[in-house]
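Milestone M4 deliverable, item 7.
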Amino acid sequence: MTARFLSFEGVEGAGKTTLITGIAAWLDAQGVPYVQTREPGGCPLGEWVRQTVLHDPEIHPVPQAELLLMYAARVQHLQEVILPAIKQGRWVLCDRFHDASHAYQGHGRGLGDAPLDWLDQWLLQKKPDCTFLLDLDVEQGRQRVAAREAGEDKMEKQDRLFFERVREGYLRQAKKEPDRFVVLDASQPPQMLLQQACQRMEAWL
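Output delivered:
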């Protein structure tokens, strides 16, 4: 059985964490080894970038700096966590990967696709085998985030129009690579989303 690299994308509040948790339990039941990770994060450099970009109240990177920080974290994460796991035969469940930069920095921040396509080609030795995009109405996602006890990070505090651009960016990515993307209606109950995702994965076992 070939190890799979799966990424999970969507606007804030789409339910990625819930879906990943369910898939991890499903893989456990199938006896499939896996690594669960996230971006930005997953390794010390990535976690530092996460803290800096999303939580440090004193640091506000301009869009180009934000993009480069994300890719610095991504390259390190790929080398330290993702590629070694795949080599060891373990699946990778990654909460966001390069499509997030296309959606958030490319479309949300208005940097466009060209610099991101160039960074992808130069820096990414491996891209996800399959990307589950949880598509959700932006206002519904914002309501879910507001209901969380943890509060909002700096990215989650962006305005509605920003997230409309992010959602559009994700859907454009999915249209460009329909064979890699599985677009799920994230307004459905979590159990239905999990069932649909697992149906896709059963063919890989």
